[in-house]
Write a structure and sequence with these properties.
It comes from Cloacibacillus porcorum. The protein has 14 helices and 13 strands. By secondary structure, the chain is an alpha+beta fold. It binds flavin-adenine dinucleotide. Flavin-adenine dinucleotide (FAD) binds next to helix 4, strand 4, strand 6 and strand 11.
């Protein structure tokens, strides 16, 4: 069994569909030196069937993206409680409420007991609530595909994730009758940060505060929802303490520097208005300039409707959200990740070298 990934890192987004589809189970998604998962193949038992390459969403022509023209909407949840517990305007809660209300299941990013970010499936509002709020770390999708297939055999399922994860899920169910029950909702994605840096950062906060981390929020509504405030909200709580503390170091590496992003993010195929999903949700940045009457400081979602299923969902959530159609040019002017990927800074290599040589604290 090989122990390292031999391919070009820019050509693997870590969705893991190759592992899930391998008929001989000879692929293992394995973390590399930056903590990102890559497929490692046991060549001794591999039968060279080529399925792994055929299901890879980055190698698939069109990457499972829709061809029709999408429509763009701003949307704000009617409930203040939902807005306060959502990153943007609460679109995820509205969409997942529809699916849960029809007896379906929701698959999204949750924290495990050690605050690692993992994809899970929930059938209750309480389980779904754990998926609320953005966790700016690449989530672990291992084991999710088989579970999704089981759930889709029983009922409708909402899958939410980054665009590349959604393309992986579309690839897995491509041609399957189970896809009828699948509603795919992606996010506009800046990039996914390293799980290894996340582990190091959690340990650093624990060391600095002399206690175990109990809770984290990557963005909060302590400050008015506005793009210029989006880097201020990282908060954490140490076990036994009542108050949340703030720290900007992780978010700074994520947004302003891009030093901790997955290599494939710099060549992302999904920074496009054509999406590999039924609906896309994101921040409706800039709405305060274009339609000040729709801005209230608690968050506004951007919804992109990509398919007839997406249009039916828009109708279904219209009782729970205030929705207004917006012109495409307004949205693309604000959302660069609908047009091109972010560029990595020249110091990315130097940062990782420092992490390896002297540890995260010095590198920070
Ligand atoms: C890594 C990442 C980068 C993003 N980049 C941008 C951006 O550049 N521009 C922009 O407008 N919006 C971006 N978003 C989306 C934005 O932060 C909100 O997640 C989105 O607007 C949904 O907010 P909400 O109020 O509808 O619901 P919330 O309740 O905040 O919903 C959270 C949703 O995000 C999913 N999610 C959370 N963490 C992860 C994760 N690590 N991996 C996969 N899915 C996750 C959950 O499953 C759930 O569906 C990004 C999100 C992530 C996770």
């Amino acid at each position: 069994m090989d122990t390292v990934y031999k391919g070009d890192k820019e050509n693997c987004c870590g969705c893991g569909v190759c592992e899930a589809r391998c008929p001989r189970h000879v692929i293992r998604m394995t973390p590399d030196g930056e903590g990102f998962l890559y497929p490692v193949i046991d060549h001794e038992h591999c039968i060279d069937c080529g399925i792994c390459a055929r299901v890879c969403p980055l190698q698939h022509e069109g990457s499972f993206k829709e061809e029709g023209r999408p429509r763009f909407f701003s949307a704000t949840h009617n409930s203040e409680e939902v807005l306060r517990h959502s990153t943007s305007g609460g679109a995820f809660t509205a969409v997942s409420d529809v699916i849960l209300g029809r007896g379906g299941a929701v698959c999204g990013a949750d924290f495990d007991g050690g605050l690692r970010v993992v994809h899970r499936i929930a059938r209750t509002a309480a389980g779904r609530d754990r998926m609320r709020l953005s966790k700016y770390v690449q989530s672990d999708m291992r084991d999710v595909y088989e579970k999704l297939a089981e759930e889709l055999g029983r009922s409708e399922v909402l899958f939410t994730g980054t665009p590349c994860q959604c393309a992986g899920v579309r690839s897995f169910f491509n041609g399957s009758p189970l896809a009828e029950n699948l509603f795919v909702c992606d996010l506009i994605c800046h990039s996914v940060p390293s799980p290894l840096i996340w582990e190091g950062y959690k340990r650093l906060l624990e060391e600095e505060n002399g206690g175990r981390l109990a809770e984290v929020r990557f963005r909060s509504k302590r400050y008015p929802w506005l793009r210029k405030n989006s880097n201020k909200g990282f908060m954490y709580r140490i076990e036994g303490a009542d108050d949340f503390l703030e720290d900007g170091r992780f978010y700074n590496l994520f947004i302003h520097r891009g030093t901790i992003a997955r290599p494939s993010c710099e060549r992302c195929r999904f920074t496009d208005v054509r999406r590999a999903s039924d609906m896309t949700i994101a921040d409706c940045w800039g709405i305060e300039k274009y339609a000040p009457e729709l801005y209230d400081g608690l968050g506004v979602s951007l919804l992109i409707v990509n398919t007839p299923k997406g249009a039916a969902m828009l109708e279904a959530i219209s009782m729970a959200m205030r929705i207004s159609e917006r012109p495409e040019e307004e949205i693309t002017a604000e959302q660069q990740r609908l047009s091109y990927p972010g560029k990595f800074p020249p110091e990315r290599g130097e940062f990782w070298e420092l992490v390896r040589r002297s540890g995260l604290k010095s590198a920070l």
